[in-house]
Please model this.
Amino acid sequence: MTESEKYLKQLHKREPELLHNPLEKSLLRDDDISKIESALNYPLPQEYREFLQSYILPELTVYIDFCGDKYASQFGETFSREKNCYIPVKNNEADVLIDFRLYSYGGIDYNDWLKKLSERVGDMTAWLEAGYIPLGDFYKESYPVFYDVMSGEIYSIHHEDIYTTEDWESPEAARECMARESSILCRNFNDFLHLICTGEPYDEDELIFFAQNNKN
Model:
């Protein structure tokens, strides 16, 4: 069992209503992945290849638990499942629940995957050409999240900061913008799956998890 399969099965057990029941195996084969890489003009990290070949996922929203200073101490509110809305953070709360929307590009064949990716990317083709694959967004769609396939790291950026790029059509300018404005969210793709699938509190400053029960 790959790490991707392990984490997605954890999510399925924790949030069974979010995923297909039973989980549907991805139909992407090695040849599909090779064609995706050819179309993107760069190789995909092994962790992401395994994810693409794990299960067919719908677009879904999960709740991630931040407990650092970068986001948890700044938002001033936390999502309440009981009330199904954001509520003010209490003085004694050290962490917050935040909505995370995970994008889906399907798992049928490479044409379907590339088509859905293109629709999601829209006019941000320079970011894709620069090696940034959009994975999702969090906190009311305010923070897009990108997979930097060149470094293997996951980055978040405020949506308004994207528009500080000096040349919208330049991959080099996209990289400069991300280097200047974005923050690392996870060290690698499997840590990203850990974040969105397990519900464990995550210190977004130190990039470490705390294995304990939480409000999710």
